[in-house]
Inverse folding.
């Protein structure tokens, strides 16, 4: 079946640096991808909708200048956490709508970000 | 406004017990989809089921069964004869027809199955 991959699976960085997370649809095209953030023992919260060829749509309260999203192709979306701080440490998960429709999404395995 | 409530934060059962995870949702749309996902310790979400708002038939898949009741806006999930491998966090989620595929997740229920 369709697969969504994420890279890296985990990353540790120093405070103030930027980190890029990639989300790829491996055997299907995705004009839309979604980025979620999950803090420990909490639910998934939608951060933004990534749109191929246009600007991302951010959810209320998410800083677009801090979380840069680029949907460069039909199979790749990237999330860059700029000037990361310890409070940005979280589990970041991307997803893409299923080609079968019916609002089903394929989820990536997630990227665990730790900011020291 | 759309909302998903999973009132049970954590459930602990002994292996072979049956367990039901509750999910209550709110939506103004008449067309919507409901989902259950499993998140094991590895973190990767595992899709379990999708149900659309026009299909109220209950579903059974092996030890798993789902009870969809529109009258009470509930979509409960039952695991029969639970096993240790069922230990995980389970999320109920809602997607409205006009939401551009956005998923609204409940807070999750952590299930611990003890041997």
């Amino acid at each position: 079946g369709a697969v969504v991959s994420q890279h890296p699976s985990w990353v540790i960085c120093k405070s103030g640096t930027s980190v890029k997370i990639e989300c790829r649809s491996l055997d299907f095209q995705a004009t839309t991808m979604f980025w979620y953030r999950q803090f420990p023992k909490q639910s998934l919260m939608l951060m933004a909708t990534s749109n191929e060829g246009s600007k991302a749509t951010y959810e209320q309260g998410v800083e677009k200048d801090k979380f840069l999203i680029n949907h460069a192709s039909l199979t790749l979306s990237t999330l860059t956490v700029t000037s990361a701080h310890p409070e940005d440490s979280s589990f970041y998960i991307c997803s893409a709508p299923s080609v079968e429709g019916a609002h089903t999404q394929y989820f990536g395995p997630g990227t665990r970000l730790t900011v020291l | 406004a759309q909302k998903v409530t999973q009132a049970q934060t954590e459930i602990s059962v002994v292996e072979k017990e049956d367990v039901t995870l509750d999910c209550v949702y709110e939506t103004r749309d008449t067309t919507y989809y409901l989902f259950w996902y499993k998140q094991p310790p590895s973190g990767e979400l595992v899709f379990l089921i999708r149900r659309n708002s026009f299909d109220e038939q209950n579903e059974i898949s092996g030890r798993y069964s789902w009870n969809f009741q529109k009258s009470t806006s509930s979509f409960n999930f039952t695991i029969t004869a639970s096993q240790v491998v069922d230990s995980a966090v389970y999320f109920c989620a809602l997607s409205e027809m006009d939401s551009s595929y956005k998923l609204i997740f409940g807070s999750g229920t952590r299930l611990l199955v003890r041997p």
